Amino acid sequence: MARADAGNGGRRKSVPIWPTLKPPVPRAAMPRHVAIIMDGNGRWARQRGLVRIRGHEAGVEAVRDVVRYCGQTHVQALTLYAFSTENWQRPRKEVQYLMRLLKRYLVEELDELHANKVRLTSIGGVHRLPGDVLSCLEKAQTHTAGNSGLTLCLALSYGSHEELLDAARDLSAQAARGDLAPERIDAAAVEAALHSAGIPPVDLLIRTAGERRVSNFLLWQACDAFFHVTDTCWPNFRRADVAEAIHALAAAPSDVEPR
Questions:
Q1: 87 in active site
Q2: Contact 223, 5 (CB under 8 A)
Q3: Single pTM value for the model
Q4: Which residues contact 2 (CB under 8 A, 6 or more apart)?
């Protein structure tokens, strides 16, 4: 990869510039929006006799490679299920470590994401994140807001039920104020009220580690998505696995009208 200098608090550092890659299938068959349930970090660590946090740590490299590949093949949007509302119930030390890992990613990857025109955004109850983590997230989102390449959406403290409830409350409030007639609440109005407003519907939903559940993830946005499950645990997941899922999507019969 070519490299370019990027500013970092007054210092300069070299960041890789991603070369464009030929997509794995014809451009017309490429998904616009890929969403991934990143599962299997704990299993990966357990299989190696390691503590769970080592699996989370190893998963960062998978994130890095998948983000780069989606950017290089001009996928429009990539949503990663990084932390669910249920994850708050995990042991306190594990949650604290996950928050530190998220903060480190946001700080260390920001220059590379920005240099490659990635727009970082998020969905979920991010107000629940620790203050320092939320500050890094907001800084990264503001810094990359004008970018026109891949939209990287992190689902953080996210649950689809909660998102749909938020949308229902928002639409109800608009109707109560007289800003929106109840009979005008249609699919477009709901989509505009979702956390993911402005991001296209999910075409390809991938889950790693063999589970066949959607786990309260993008229930509205992925209602027509092709669901691809792989036995590969997240820390071992790489761009070749993304390409395999895209090939499966392209080969699958579809009764959904093209958008």
A1: yes
A2: no
A3: 0.94
A4: 16, 17, 19
194: which 2 tokens? Answer: 């979702």
pLDDT tens digits, one per residue of 130-170: 999 999 999 999 999 999 999 999 999 999 999 999 999 99
Q: Quote the pLDDT of residue 155.
A: 98
241 is catalytic: no
pLDDT score, position 187: 96
Q: From the candidates 5, 8, 39, 231, which is the catalytic residue?
A: 39
124 φ/ψ sector (left φ>0, alpha ψ -120 to 50, else beta):
left
What is the 3-state secondary structure of 4-50? EEEEECCEEEEEEECCCCCCCCCHHHCCCEEEEECCCHHHHHHHCCC
Domains along the chain with CATH numbers = 27-159+201-250 (3.40.1180.10)
* Per-residue pLDDT tens over the stretch 33-52: 999 999 999 999 999 999 99
Answer whether residue 10 shows pLDDT above 60.
no
State the Cα–Cα distance between residues 128 and 12, nearest whole angstrom: 33
Q: Give mean pLDDT, residues 103-118.
A: 98
Are β-strands 33-37 and 11-17 bridged in parallel, bridged antiparallel, or unpaired? unpaired
The one catalytic residue in 5, 8, 41, 87 is 87
Q: Which residues contact 257 (CB under 8 A, 6 or more apart)?
A: none
Structure-token pair, residue 103: 């903060």
